[in-house]
Automatic annotation (TrEMBL):
Family: Belongs to the LpxB family.
Family annotation (Gene3D superfamilies): Glycogen Phosphorylase B
Catalytic activity: a lipid X + a UDP-2-N,3-O-bis[(3R)-3-hydroxyacyl]-alpha-D-glucosamine = a lipid A disaccharide + UDP + H(+)
The entry's keywords: Glycosyltransferase, Lipid A biosynthesis, Lipid biosynthesis, Lipid metabolism, Transferase
Pathway: Bacterial outer membrane biogenesis; LPS lipid A biosynthesis
Function of the molecule: Condensation of UDP-2,3-diacylglucosamine and 2,3-diacylglucosamine-1-phosphate to form lipid A disaccharide, a precursor of lipid A, a phosphorylated glycolipid that anchors the lipopolysaccharide to the outer membrane of the cell.
EC number: 2.4.1.182
Pfam families noted in UniProt: LpxB
Name under which the protein is recorded: Lipid-A-disaccharide synthase
Length: 374
């Protein structure tokens, strides 16, 4: 198994747990994170060495990454495992899978690349690389079936962890918020560039809303200490804004809130699972946006919108990320109880589709592949 980031470590640990329940003698090796290592995984390299993002950083580390990948390929070709499982990190893992599959080793890729969204030509490499694709979302499985790739939709692990029956008032008390006031959570992302580009519009929106609604309170969860410092500096430009800044604790913040204003990503999925009306705002460097938009094959960026194929979460992207428009959208949702109820109902229906006990489904699919005749 090879994982390249924290989310993959979580998936890997869950998969290991279920495999061990069926075969206590199973052994695991490759590259794993702390959660996998705690379950007995033998990691030949530090997972953090693979955790690079963006367009430039991977090139800076390219020699090291190529050496690590070569070492993994040679090791498993010399001592073939029953199955190789690459978890996410497609740019790193698909080449490993392709080499090992050509050597007669069964290969699985867990978490679909966004090939359905952009760079669809990658499907040719996926066909060559993996015997089985495990997807988190049903629309991904449909895409692979259309391209004759063996696929199993296993659901999303978060769907078994989060639900819309959380205690909002208890969460407010934990955060020192007034449970009798409406709460807007502002979540401008976890990366420096996201906060720099998105937070000003979000905070301008909050400033506008605070001048119109004295019964509305605001809270921002910082993803880590660096983002906390960054947001603290930004908030100096809003000395009269009644806003609470907390370090981490994003799940509690979301639970305590009546409405969320978020950057895109996994947070949109968490918001859906928690049944929270949500508005998505996103902005990136203009050149990156130009490149991405020219390659993208999708109408939405929010995962719930992709699942529903409609804008359950209003999206304000790039030049449309305007504070006054965000404020208008927030007020429209807060003042429309019927709309909020209908959105929560649709979120609940989508959540039930993803609640499949993903780790168990993935383990069963892996065993079926191992046991299948070559």
């Amino acid at each position: 198994m090879v994982v390249g980031e924290a989310s993959g470590d979580i998936l890997g640990a869950g998969l290991m747990r279920e495999i061990k329940l069926r075969n206590p003698n199973a052994t695991f090796e490759g590259i794993g994170g702390p959660k996998m290592i705690a379950k007995g995984f033998n990691s030949h390299f530090d997972q953090e060495r693979l955790a690079v993002m963006g367009f430039v950083e991977p090139f800076k580390r390219l020699p090291e990454l190529l050496n690590i990948r070569k070492s993994i390929i040679e090791r498993f070709q010399a001592d073939p495992p029953d199955v190789f499982i690459g978890i996410d990190s497609p740019d790193f893992n698909l080449t490993i899978e392709e080499k090992l599959k050509s050597s007669g080793i069964k290969t699985v890729h867990y978490v679909s690349p966004s090939v359905w969204a952009w760079r669809q030509g990658r499907i040719k490499k996926i066909v060559r690389a993996c015997d089985l694709m495990l997807t988190l979302f049903p629309f991904e499985a449909n895409f692979y079936r259309e391209h004759n790739v063996a696929v199993k939709f296993v659901g999303h692990p978060l769907a078994n962890e989060l639900s819309d029956d959380q205690d909002t008032k208890a969460a407010c008390s934990l955060l020192g918020l007034d449970p009798n006031k409406q709460t807007l959570a502002i979540m401008p992302g976890s990366r420096e560039s996201e906060v720099r580009l998105i937070a000003p519009a979000f905070l301008d929106c909050a400033q506008t809303l605070s001048e119109q609604r004295s019964d509305l309170q605001f809270i921002v969860p910082a993803a880590n200490e660096k983002r906390y410092k960054q947001l603290t500096e930004l908030l100096k430009n809003y000395p009269n804004l009644p806003i609470t800044l907390v370090l981490g604790d994003s799940k509690t913040v979301m639970t305590a809130s009546d409405i969320l204003l978020i950057a895109s990503g996994t947070t949109s999925l968490e918001a859906m699972l928690l049944g929270k009306p949500t508005i998505i705002g996103y902005k990136m460097a203009w050149l990156s946006f130009k490149i991405m938009s020219s390659l993208a094959k999708i109408n939405y960026i929010g995962l719930p919108n992709l699942l529903a194929d409609k804008a359950l979460m209003p999206e304000f992207i790039q030049d449309k990320l305007i504070a006054d428009d965000l404020a208008e959208a927030v007020l429209k949702i807060l003042d429309d109880d019927a709309y909020c109820a209908s959105i929560k109902k649709e979120f609940s229906e989508l959540s039930s589709q993803l609640r499949q006990n993903a780790s168990l489904q993935a383990a069963n699919a892996v065993f079926d592949l191992i046991e299948a005749k070559s």
